[in-house]
Amino acid sequence: MRAVIQRVSEARVTVDGEVVGTIGPGLLVLVGVTHGDTQADAQWLARKVAGLRIFEDEAGRMNRSVKEVGGSVLVVSQFTLYADARRGRRPSFVQAAPPDVAEPLIEAFCAYLAEEGVPVATGRFRAMMEVCLCNVGPVTIILETLRRDGKIGEGRG
To answer: Which of 14, 79, 122, 145 is the catalytic position?
Structure first.
């Protein structure tokens, strides 16, 4: 799994003119799933996101997690995070898991975040979404789960 994490003052997702997910201060997390990703990946990534210390403490240092500051997380599935644009001009998406594999793992990721005590809002899987955010900092972090052999992209479990 791959995640792009942005620290935000607010974020929302709109589908067909309807706001389907919105948060105040917290994190916008764009999440992609690739072949071989597992529930273990979803759980590891959720724990990592919930505990990532990228919010400022009273001294102005990035030393607090979204849980510690009482923030929320807006999760948006994004298969294009696995785009391969190295050849030609049209990206290939063959590294993105098919929807029937990706959707349950995105849902598991959200459930694991909630288990960590973080309020979660979501976009809508397979919908054309408009994502609006105000990135604070800006702070943007990219995370990726690893295989047992240490290579990127095919699961921890």
So the answer is: 79
pLDDT of 152 reads 52
Class of domain 2-144: alpha beta
Q: Which of 78, 109, 122, 145 is catalytic?
A: 78
- For residue 80, indicate whether it is catalytic: yes
Report how far residue 50's alpha carbon sits from residue 127's, in angstroms, rounded to the nearest whole number.
26
78 catalytic? Reply is yes
Burial string for 118-157 (b: 16+ CB within 10 Å, else e) reads bbbbbbbeeeebeeebeebeebeeebebeeeeeeebbbbe
pLDDT of residue 146: 74
Whole-model pTM? 0.92
| Rg over CA atoms, the chain | 15
List of residues 6+ apart from 45 with CB closer than 8 A: 1, 3, 31, 109, 112, 143, 145
10-residue mean pLDDT profile of the chain (157 residues): values are 98 98 98 95 97 96 97 97 94 96 98 98 96 97 78 49
C-alpha to C-alpha distance for 1 and 104, rounded to whole angstroms: 13
